[in-house]
Design goal:
Blueprint: H1 3-12, H2 14-18, H3 20-32, E1 43-44, H4 50-53, E2 55-56, H5 60-66, H6 69-89, H7 91-101, H8 106-117, H9 124-134, H10 141-148, H11 160-188, H12 192-200, H13 205-216, H14 218-230, H15 237-243, H16 249-252, H17 255-265, H18 269-297
Antiparallel strand pairs: 1-2
Helix pairs in contact: 5-18, 6-11, 7-11, 8-11, 9-15, 14-18, 17-18
């Protein structure tokens, strides 16, 4: 299609393009305009002088970042927690969707779906309070059960050897049901004639699940996996911020909470912006790389 044809098509559908204007204005004002603030990462930013009056220091903040012992620890924690969530939690919604698809009694199916969806609508503040109570070393339900079996109480949220496990478990408890919605929707789009043909050939439910359902939702799985890789350095800032304490900084402090503490706690805005920019650039590279690898080896990609 040449330029004249495209312009003619645009003029004939001007009302449809007009609908794009509010969204484009929103993106411009709230997504792209604030990106100007990344220059703080290259300054010794002073809140009173502003961006225009602060001293330009180039890559000094990034050199400080690379040589920071705290950042090495924080990056390790972030990668470990994110990898645990990917390896352990990513497959579970797929399995949940596959088995829910096999439930034939609609009342039972909808009841199960409602129950596993509900935690998603609770804020992390509420969930943290709930698990702080359940895991309390004095009167928490979990430790009461441990005592019944002759064990000693465990301070799950104040023990570095348990904190990451608690983070992964609570994240799964909250989001597994909600994440399964995407895969349930993908399953609903599979041609039902494939199942009928498989039944005629004598295939059972497990064989249908493996040979029809799973390949049918594979593009969705690839898409969600690439997006999840892109957020590898987002280990759940809001979640950890409401659950951790200085005792478990060694294993629980991640990039997001580190930026929060450095930026607001110590008012080191330039350094925290440099950390955030590093996080964003790595996430962008991971999305591009994940898409390229998926396109090369799986013949499926986002674009």
């Amino acid at each position: 299609m040449n330029r004249n044809s495209r312009w003619k098509l645009a003029r004939s559908n001007w009302d449809m393009y007009l609908l794009l204007v509010p969204g484009l204005i929103f993106l411009l004002l709230f997504k792209y305009t604030p990106m100007y603030g990344v220059v703080i990462a290259f300054q010794d930013f002073n809140i009173f002088s502003g961006i225009g009056g602060s001293e330009w220091v180039g890559l000094e903040q990034f050199q400080k970042l690379v040589h920071s012992d705290d950042f090495s620890r924080v990056l390790t924690n972030t990668l470990l927690i994110s990898m645990y969530k990917i390896v352990i939690l990513f497959p579970i919604p797929i399995v949940v969707a596959l088995f829910l698809n096999e439930v034939r009694k609609m009342f039972f199916k909808r009841t199960i779906q409602t129950i596993i969806y509900l935690p998603h609508f609770l804020s992390w503040v509420i969930i943290s309070g709930l698990f702080v109570t359940l895991l309390s070393p004095t009167d928490g339900l979990v430790n009461q059960i441990i005592k019944v079996f002759g064990g000693d109480p465990v301070s799950f949220l104040q023990d570095n050897s348990f904190f990451r496990s608690v983070v992964v478990f609570t994240a799964g408890w909250k989001e597994i049901g909600w994440n399964a919605i995407v895969f349930i929707a993908a399953i609903a789009g599979i041609d039902q004639e494939q199942y009928e043909a498989a039944s005629i050939d004598g295939a059972g439910r497990i064989r249908k699940m493996i040979s029809i359902t799973l390949p049918g939702i594979m593009p969705t799985i690839v898409l969600m996996f690439i997006l999840r890789i892109g957020s590898l350095l987002e280990a759940g800032t809001e979640q950890i911020l409401t659950m951790y304490n200085p005792i478990v900084y060694d294993t629980g402090d991640v990039i997001g909470t580190f930026v929060y503490r450095m930026g607001l706690g110590q008012q080191d805005y330039s350094f925290s912006t440099a950390v955030g920019l590093f996080n964003s650039v790595v996430g962008f590279i991971l999305v591009i790389s994940g898409n390229m690898l998926s396109k090369k080896f799986l013949k499926r990609s986002i674009w």
